[in-house]
Amino acid sequence: MRTISLLTTMIIGVVFFACQVTSASESATRSNIYLDDTRDNYLSGWKAMITNAYPVDALKSGRWFNPAPVSRPFLHVDIIPFSNELRAKLHDNSTDALIVVKDSAIVAQYFRYGFGIEDIHLIHSSGKCFTSFAIQTVYDRIGTEGLSRPLKAYLPRLEGKFFGESTLAQALDMKNGMEWSENYDDPSTATMLSGPVGGWDPLNSEKGPESWYERMFDFPKYGEHGKTWVYSSGSAVASAFAGAAIEGRHYSELVQESYNELGFEDRSWYVSNAFNELSAEGGQALSIRDHAKLGRFMLEKEGSTYVDDVWNMTGDKNDPADSVFLKKYPFAKAYKNYWYKLDDDVILAFGSSGQFLYVDRSKNLIISKYSSFVEGQGAGEFADGLEIIGKIAAMY
């Protein structure tokens, strides 16, 4: 299977280029109340497990969303347990939960001790595709003309900013040229500075509460819009803001409606700041069964330009922006609306510490995996995670 045969190059692309992170080590010391109260390396080891599985308690601020008024559960069938060997691999890969959905039925599952199918878990950057999905109806309605308008046309507060000149389509495809670094080991990088602004981390005592508009869209020019590819959390947040502006409603309303459309069964939580700006770059915390429901939507929905654009995306090595992406991510054929295309029938979303949403339309198969990697961006852990998903996919 092409997806698995390219695991090595996939990991080089994902970890080194996307995250630009070296292996994290647990350097912080324990406090006198046992639990280490520092924020250092909070994506590593047991801190990742606490943050991922208990975001309401571990992160600075957020808000709850309701389950759908009419939920749409997956079908119930007899669960065939994984082999002891596969369970050991899942355990060794710091897996918190994994479910396999085949033909809209949960056919296999794994849960670490203490974590259940209804428990919420941070989904990190796999949540970016939930962000683009939340504005799916907007995307379908405005078409190419609307997607080609600059962000400043929808968000006047971006007027005069280089970032505001990029289009909504470019923001959804990471093809805007504003500099942005996702290095979690450097406290001065854009992604780390965004923590207190978004609601992830304690506030900077000198600045107090900040809107994303105050500095998160002001980073220097990296390249021409549309002619380069820069992985940017700011792009996802701006896309959410733009979709809400087009609708004339708060983004949280679009989020709730998108969850209703998917038929969420459980309450969910979303990182947000004092201005009720949702951390749309990956601040969603969902149950694993609700996480998999976006995969079902991508398999079932007909007549949606958004869905068709994702499945039909292609990468052109002669296109300046695509060439940057394809060089950095040789495992993938293309990238659109925050989805990676692995093969003609396989798309993938993934996020920090090992969150995966794998969708194969040729098999009508969805695999959702939650993890808390010891090394938050560890290359070996990502490789092992993808290998496990590949082994499971080959079983169906």
Number of helices: 17
Distance between the termini: 13 Å
- Percent helix range: 25-40%
Low-confidence spans: pLDDT under 50, at least 5 residues?
1-35
Structure description:
The protein contains 17 helices and 12 strands. It has helices at residues 2-5, 7-19, 45-53, 55-58, 84-92, 128-134, 136-147, 151-154, 168-172, 190-198, 233-247, 251-262, 288-291, 293-300, 305-311, 320-328, 379-393, and strands at residues 62-65, 75-76, 95-102, 105-111, 120-122, 268-271, 284-287, 334-336, 339-343, 346-351, 355-360, 365-371. The chain has an 8-stranded mixed sheet, with helices on both faces. Strands 1-6-7-5 form a 4-stranded antiparallel sheet. Strand 9 and strand 10 (346-351) form a beta hairpin. Helix 6 (128-134) crosses helix 12. The longest helix has 15 residues, at 233-247. Mean pLDDT is 90; it is low at 1-35.
